[in-house]
Amino acid sequence: MDLDAVTKQSVLHAKPDGLTLQYGTAGFRTKAEHLDHVMFRMGLLAVLRSKQTKSTIGVMVTASHNPEEDNGVKLVDPLGEMLAPSWEEHATCLANAEEQDLPRVLVDIGEKAAVNLHQDAFVVIGRDTRPSSEKLSQSVIDGVTVLGGQFHDYGLLTTPQLHYMVYCRNTSGQYGKATIEGYYQKLSAAFVELTKQASCSGDDQRTLKVDCANGIGALKLREMKHYFSQGLSVQLFNDGTKGKLNHLCGADFVKSHQKPPQGIEMKSNERCCSFDGDADRIIYYYHDADGQFHLVDGDKIAALISSFLKEPLLEIGDSLSLGVVQTAYANGSSTRYLEEVMKVPVYCTKTGVKHLHHKAQEFDIGVYFEANGHGTVLFSKAAEMKIKQLAKELEEDKKRKAAKMLENVIDLFNQATGDAISDMLVIEAILALKGLTVQQWDALYTDLPNRQLKVKVADRQVISTTDAERQAVKPPGLQEAINELVKKYRLSRAFVRPSGTEDIVRVYAEADSQENADSLAYEVSLAVFQLAGGIGERPQPAESPEQFLDDLPLFS
Ligand code: 16G
Ligand code: MG
């Protein structure tokens, strides 16, 4: 390592005095103007990680669903996964090192992680459409080059596309071609093949309105839609030509406000969906004939996909294990439906894609979705090989058809991470194959009314949780208080957890009616405020649901 060169370059990307940041649930995120040094240093770190794993590492510049003024960065590990936890710690140390300590911290990481410094390094870089992203990705490149790493800058990409590129490059192209065309072709071919068997059900059925959150998803979907135009026509809204990124639109807005985004015209019973700012979340919704809004969230996507997969799996007669992974936010009705009606095992992990992804890898076929719309389906290598073999060998027509269908499903899901575009195509294919309308899909089960609130406390770390965040072990008395409150309502459940992305505590409650869910959420918030060091104004009971909506920030 040429530490002198690092020191010299680092001055051009100097760390503001006293600023400390944490590699959070999905990397570093804060106001864009505070991130230059972090980007440079993540370029350095990516080189070390690449040398250590002898693989290509990805660096994505994005702040996802957060406001346009924010930005962020995260590293992508060799198989398209999120950075390993021990390296998250290295990332935090490196980002927070004062200028004069930077060389020492770098050497330290190299030693701790047993990095062979003579190894070559290769880093791929992607960025979203934020005004600050281009300059920040240049800072990443400066970091990569000063440590002698090679790089390829993909420029504008959705986050899942960068994960895809990393995965392709580290499997010598076996997973796909590491180009944007390679991505479009792989997914579109699988989609067209899968939907061939769908009986044509009229134009209406095959049109989808997509709110792109004024983000990168719009650019990429516009390029891609020609590849699958025979099977599906997508109409883009909030495509970034006018509105502001994530402002009053996008998956996060729709999910947390439970209302349509601005800038989209919805006719009754029309199928619509929203991506978030970096296109790794997707949420569906529609207005019914009475003008009522219905949200079809990540839980329902998992239910649709799992029930679809069960049939061909039964047909091929091979006992491949299927499991669904959710978080504590999964609606109680979805868990009940999956376990009792679909008879599939359901597991709960902590919030954050990396936790779900990890758990899903334990199954032959692991379906994972957060209620907020992050998710995908992972097929183990063994399952993939078995299915591909069966698709070739099976004599019996029905069985072979089922195996072929599964083969296309494998190709259509982005196995590297949750991907709004890939998920959208899978969902559209399933609806077409099953001849389902969005209302019929929505009717798989009825969501329990629920409410999410936030509470400000002096130090959110005074709350610690266990059992996949469903039980609070600290502060003393809080869980007991929640248990007592939950007992007062029917079909009720509540939990609290410190946010991994904001300085607040989140409260979730569900119950048999909206009024009860609201009231339980309020009472639990009050218990948090009293027992966990609340600051500012005490939580107030909501007089109308609108008040709760106003309480929720637009971006969280
Ligand atoms: C991040 C996570 C998301 C999670 C959210 C929770 C990724 C790619 N993103 O956005 O999965 O739901 O954080 O935020 O992992 P919270 O801790 O503030 O509730
Ligand atoms: Mg995102």
From TrEMBL:
Gene name of this polypeptide: PGM3
Record domain Alpha-D-phosphohexomutase C-terminal: where: 454-524
Protein name: Phosphoacetylglucosamine mutase
Positions with a binding annotation for Mg(2+): S64, D276, D278, D280
Domain of life of the source: Eukaryota
Manner of cofactor binding, per the entry note: Binds 1 Mg(2+) ion per subunit.
UniProt domain Phosphoacetylglucosamine mutase AMG1: residue ranges: 178-283, 297-435
Taxonomic source organism: Monodon monoceros (Narwhal)
Pfam families: AMG1_II, AMG1_III, PGM_PMM_I, PGM_PMM_IV
